[in-house]
Design a protein that fits this description.
Distance between the termini: 63 Å
Number of domains: 2
Number of helices: 17
Helix content: over 70%
Number of strands: 0
Order of helices and strands: HHHHHHHHHHHHHHHHH
Length: about 400
């Protein structure tokens, strides 16, 4: 039956495991275009072509990934690996999806450190960064049309946007928005003394209680701090991979002073241009700050929570979305994440759009993405090539 693990002979189990590995590697090398495109490609492979799952089972898994932190497309590959080949499929499927992108980003990080300050490298990034701003704006617009379902969610998103610009902590904003929406939506249950009240609120209080104090003083680079920051991000980040920008800027630019806004945009540009999860931006930053060890620790730190969450949540999938408390929490966290995305786009836009050419590239890229649905990878390549052409022409 599709969607059920077969506890058959060892040869059959081994065959299923290598099927998972092949599919994950294929997607890891070819999945351009962001999480939505990755998930569409995964569905084509495992539902339409191979019939490992039914559409209903695939949708149930997708719903579960929206209820836990982490990169949605990566978690979907991990879920499918678990369904098809058990815990070995969970581990190897997720790892093989991540590995190609991480290696490509690592190569780009090495080249950036060695050659990124050359004139050609600077001009290439000069043209890419305004396109990245347009890509993130397009993601905010598309996700907002789906996630903002009524005045309450719109208010939560706008509140997150404004408070983020004022310097509020991103974790407090994410879970504060989720808690607000959850309580307001479930006020009738509160008045009736719903027995699920404590079960609905306690997880949110636990998750939202830590507050990270901001500091403008630079902190010496440390591999242990690097690992713990990316572990924290992987454990609490909801929404699109582009929300990662807000967390990275808060920790590495504002609080620790290990990166500048321009260096952060360079890292995001590489993560966006390569296939696979945008979270491999962590690999770039890890290498830039701590070399090969930093790249490995940052990559492991940001993806490790996804494997743990998927393993824990998979048996609970049929019950999660039906809970009114958890459903409302998810909606609130999602729109708060959109507010964070919008705020960090404004902040990083100041570093990327510096003259008429970068402004024009950002505007044309936004039009191409919103109206003509051009693949973002081609736009990023075009932005870099246009900038190089202007340099060679002496403009």
């Amino acid at each position: 039956m599709p969607g059920r693990k077969n506890e058959g002979c060892p040869e059959e189990a081994s065959g299923r495991l290598w099927e998972v590995v092949r599919v994950a590697l294929k997607l890891g090398f070819t999945a351009f275009g962001g999480p939505a495109a990755h998930i569409a490609m995964l569905r084509e492979e495992v539902v339409t072509r191979r019939r490992w799952l039914t559409d209903q089972h695939f949708l149930d898994l997708l719903g579960a990934t929206n209820l836990i932190p982490g990169p949605n497309s990566t978690e979907m590959v991990i879920h499918v690996g678990n369904v098809r080949a058990g815990w070995r499929g969970l581990i190897l499927g997720g790892a093989r999806f991540i590995l190609p992108a991480a290696l490509m980003v690592l190569a780009c990080a090495w080249a950036y450190v060695e050659y990124g300050t050359t004139a050609a490298g600077e001009w290439l990034l000069y043209g890419i960064k305004p396109v990245i701003i347009a890509v993130v704006l397009q993601a905010v617009w598309a996700l907002g049309r789906v996630g903002v379902k009524g005045p309450l969610l719109a208010a939560a998103g706008l509140g997150s946007f404004g408070l983020s610009l004022l310097g509020w902590n991103e974790i407090a904003l994410l879970f504060g928005g989720g808690l607000l929406v959850m309580l307001v939506r479930n006020l009738p249950r509160v008045w009736r003394g719903d027995s699920n009240l404590v079960a609905g609120i306690l997880p949110v209080i636990t998750l939202s209680s830590p507050t990270i104090v901001q500091s403008s003083a630079a902190v010496p680079a440390s591999l242990s701090i690097l690992f713990l920051i990316f572990l924290k991000i992987g454990a609490v980040l909801y929404g699109s991979g582009y929300v990662l920008l807000a967390f990275l800027r808060n920790d590495f630019v504002t609080r620790l002073g290990w990166l500048t806004d321009r260096q952060l945009l360079d890292a995001v540009a590489v993560g966006q241009f390569t296939p696979g999860p945008v979270f491999t931006t962590a690999t770039f930053i890890g290498y830039f700050i701590g070399g090969w060890a930093g790249a490995a620790l940052a990559t492991i730190g940001i993806f490790l929570p996804s494997f743990v969450f998927v393993a824990a949540v998979n048996p609970l999938i049929p019950r999660l979305r039906r809970c009114p408390w958890m459903g409302a929490l998810l909606d609130g966290v999602n729109v708060s994440a959109l507010g964070l995305m919008a705020a960090v786009t404004v902040q990083l836009g100041r570093a990327a759009i510096v003259d008429w050419l970068t402004g024009l590239l950002a505007a044309l890229s936004a039009v191409a993405l919103l109206w003509f649905k051009v693949n973002s990878a081609w736009l990023i390549l075009a932005g870099g090539l246009i900038a190089l052409a202007f340099r060679w022409l002496g403009a």
